[in-house]
Amino acid sequence: MNKPLAVLASTMLLALGGCAKPLAPVVTQLPPELPPVIQAFADICIKAAPDFAAAAKAAEAYSIQSKADAAGVLTGTSMDKTLNLQIKPGKECVISTIKQPNTDLTQKFLRSVSYFTNERVPHTLPAKIMVNKELFIFHHDRKNAETFVMMKAKG
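Below the sequence we write its predicted C-alpha cells.
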C-alpha cells in the first residue's frame, strides 16, 4: 500500500474508533430495588427474544392479557393499568408505564439489560446489544411516560 493511502486508512480507522460508545463491564448483580416495569421488561421482552413468541405468555404473570390486531401486533394493559405492552412478533417488544420521578431509571434499565443479556452495554441509549446471537436496539423514552423498547436492528 502506498504511503498516502496508508495514512488515509489509519486516519479513518482512528476516526471511526472515536464514534463507538464506551462499554460498561457486564453486570453480574441486579440493581437493588429493581423497578417493577424493568423487571417486567426483562421477563416479557428480553427473555422472549429473539422472536418474542413467549412474550404474551410471560405477560400473563403481570396480569396482562394481550390481544392481536389484524396485523398480528399484540397489545395489552395490566389489570391495575400500570403496565402497557406492545409486541410486534419477531421485530419489537415494548413495555411502558406512567412517568416516574426516578432520575436513575435509565441507568437501572441499562444495568438490567446487561445482567439479563450477559453483554457489555454502553452508558447511553439508544444502544445496539446482542441477545441470543441477534442484534437489537434498546431504548428508554421518558417523554410523557416511561417506555422501554427492544427492537431488532436492521442488518
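Helices lie at 3-17, 36-44, 55-59, 105-117.
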